[in-house]
Amino acid sequence: MQSYDERGQLITDVSYSNEKPLGSGPTASLPSRVEITRPQDQYKLSISYQDSASVELDRPYPPRAFVLENKWGLPEVDLDAQNKKTANK
Length: 89
Hints:
With about 90 residues, this protein is mostly beta strands. The chain has one domain (about 1-85). It has one helix and four strands; from the N terminus they run ββββα. The chain has one helix at about 80-85; strands at about 1-5, 10-20, 30-40, 45-50. The protein has a four-stranded antiparallel sheet, with no helix packed on it. β2 and β3 form a beta hairpin. The radius of gyration is 17 Å and the shape is extended. It starts with a strand and ends with a helix.
């Protein structure tokens, strides 16, 4: 899946691969690897399941599970800052 800016330049490229059954018992078959590339921001992120059978489907997660903590105090960059400036004009 790809998204482009108003000049036709690639903003985000997402690929899904290595489809596997997830969970135990009745399962869903989903990509076990997702790769996100943002060439203009010069970064790439790959996410994969180490053990797809251990994935628990349809269970509630606490809100804390969706918080990304910067435990190491690394520099943080708001990749959407430029888009926010353009939208507020």
